[in-house]
Amino acid sequence: MTNKNKTLGEYIIENQKNFKYSSGELSRLINSIRLAAKVVNHEIRKAGLVDITGAAGDINIQGEAQQKLDVYANDKFKETLINREIVCGIASEEEDDFVIVEGNNKKNENKYVLMMDPLDGSSNIDVNVSVGTIFSIYRRVTPVGTPVTIEDFLQPGRNQVAAGYVAYGTSTMMVFTTGHGVNGFTLNPAIGTFYLSHPNMTFKETGKIYSVSEGYFAHFEEGMKQYLKYCKLEEGDRPYTARYIGSLVADFHRNLIKGGIYIYPKSKTSPKGKLRLLYECNPMAFIAEQAGGKASDGYDRILDIQPTELHQRVPFYVGSKKMVEKAEEFMAKYKDQ
Length: 337
Ligand code: P6P
What we know:
Elements lengths: L7 H8 L7 H23 L1 H4 L18 H15 L3 E6 L6 E2 L11 E9 L10 E9 L22 E7 L3 E6 L5 E6 L4 E6 L10 E3 L10 H11 L8 E2 L5 H11 L2 E4 L12 H14 L3 E3 L19 E4 L1 H13 L4
Parallel strand pairs: 1-3, 9-10, 9-11
Antiparallel strand pairs: 1-2, 3-4, 4-5, 5-6, 6-7, 7-8, 11-13, 12-13
Helix pairs in contact: 2-4, 5-8
The structure holds 6-O-phosphono-alpha-D-fructofuranose.
The site of 6-O-phosphono-alpha-D-fructofuranose (P6P) has 8 residues, from loops.
């Protein structure tokens, strides 16, 4: 069967043997995310029409309790994961603390914890700009059958067994890795099936696109300021092209296909950066490295950072390997200024 006609379901069956744990678990994991992605996608595609993009807690035109889309997405992913009985714990940008998943009337023997940003960039919904879901999956480290603890969530990113994102763009795509490369699947909305449209996705070693919110320039560290000046220099392969959508998944996905770097650095207003380590940076870093790219906090590998709290933030440099290395050169050179 050619790649282009291969469905996500067929891909999972063919590749279950590569998953280092029980084969059935991978397919249940990915299939539960696939279902939730389709449900959320359906809601997003009509957001402007049914006025559900308002604040949570209001009553919408149908007289239903109005949910913001990120609250809706969070509920749908949680519901699907719990109903499919594949996880024992969930952490989410939308949940203050992690969620202990009880087994239905029996001990929960499931071995996976999932961390997610159910709808990253949700403020873009009101202006019809792409948004995304980001997910990260680990094996639990505490005894199976007992309630999960914070230890199960504070694992370094290199322990991930799977990670991916759903890009709700001009088309809806699911891109994920289980540690054997990165593959992209595009949804055919007419039949609700994801097809393998982007097999073996890889970052170009270098590129010409940089994605940075330059409005904060005055607040950046000196190394970041010098790197941005380098990007604009008319010399060699520069000036680069500036592209910043304000939606991590959309910027990352474009750079993965075209080559480029995305940076959300620390600044005076965001002293630890803005993006969350557990459910934004770690999954995107796992995907980046599996695609031959690189991800750091400007100095050290993202996947080696030992998390200390559920919602901790880190500076984030991710994309084509040589571009990330160039940015790191400037951060090192001006570290003490
Ligand atoms: P700023 C969206 O809120 C997000 O988490 C990322 O998706 C995006 O890249 C970034 O924040 C945008 O932040 O400060 O530029 O608006």
